[in-house]
Write the structure tokens for this entry.
Amino acid sequence: MAVPETPRPVKAPSYLDAAIPLLALVVLVGASVTLFGLDAINGPMQVSMILSAMVAVAVILKNGHAWEAIARSGQKGVSTVVGAIFILLAVGALIGTWNMSGTIPTLVYYGIKLISPAWFLPVAFLVCSGISLSIGSSWTTAGTVGVGLVGLASMIGVSPAMTAGAVISGAYVGDKISPLSETTVLAAQLNGVELFRHIRAQAWTTIPAGIIALAAFAVLGIWQKGGVDDSIVHAELAHIEGLFHISAWNLLPLLFLLVLSVRKAPAPLAIMCAALLAGIMAAFLQPQAVAQFVAAPEQSAPVVAVKGVWLAMANGFQADTGMAQVDALLSRGGMDSMLLTIWLIIGAVTFGILVDDFGLLDKLVTPLLLRARTTGKLFASVVGTAVGLNLAAGDQYIALLLPTRLYRGEFAKRGLAPENLSRAVGDAGIVTSPLIPWNSCGAYMSAVLGVSTLAYLPYAVFNIASPILTLLLGITGWRIVRLAREDATAPVAATAQAIADGRPGVDRQET
């Protein structure tokens, strides 16, 4: 009779266990960037993330965990980014059909005519801020208007990297403070804070960071030598008009998407519907562009239109205006253009969920909490943990969830109201995510804007200023909200649970 196999004992991870996967990540990602430069995002960095995940798997297996448990954890990690994958595919399709329908060419055409290069960067920041506040989505803002603004920048002599920084800065204003933003709502809910109380707390860093960003982009716009020769501008406009019928009707897909977003339609569905609408409109408003793209004169117009929409959504639109700079701008999009980004996100999130689920991150983060003896050090620990998780886990939701779980009880114990923590994780966990190439947000922004993360990083002024400002608030104690004395002296678990449940009767005092 066979003797049942005795399960291996599971060991708690040591500090060395926790450090090995993160060191592997740093070494492999650093090597990929050193060897391949900005091209690392086109495959080498993805390999780095997968190999780092394998190193984490080896450590977890060594500690006695079963492969089945590791596989379930990896599956859970991938399932968390299914929504992001569908958004990426939908945005790829949208860029393709919006180019074919004349939506992006029209935005570029009017932009060249109306916007002075000296004021282009602050205008880009304000436009993206307004749209993101209206719809609550940084991804949708960057993937639609942001694409047109970055394309327009290169045609009027403005740095695409600076423009991408302005677009991302504006896009994250809404992601951080709009009541329609899912990350804003999540930060409030996780900390048991009423939504508009959380938004008011966020305003003390968001408004100053926005003013700093606006001033920086105004200075950059005046400082850089923007603008091109008038003859080149006229040539660009003529080549755009030569392929597309420029009309305000071409902007209807953009208006349609904004309406769907404000009405809180699911983002993948809203974006795909806007892509399909643009494709249908292209058949009526831009038949010459569709015919040139499909290049099948022997087929009927309806068949050409259907093939055009299909190809633009799958592989992107290819323009042939006769001017290389215009063609490079308008020949983009397609679901297949997002596959490298999806590969990177899957690798990064799998790594992140493994080191989180099996206690490797907790092992490294807990000492930070023990050393945070002052309010300033506590805020620094929160910011450092959130930024570190964006680096290590590659996903902003992990950087939002885990610091909340780790620090909520300590904030209650010290008499600090939960909106202090919700503001800190918002400033550090949400806003820094697009600054990291292998983070899902950084990979997305780089893919849709066509600018590498490392190139636009120095110009994402809002995203850099926000965590710095929240650190200053913690160090100085200004606008730090405290619980009433009786609540501050209550047992830690009871106080934290009361805050999490959102029960009434918890008074707050501002200092």
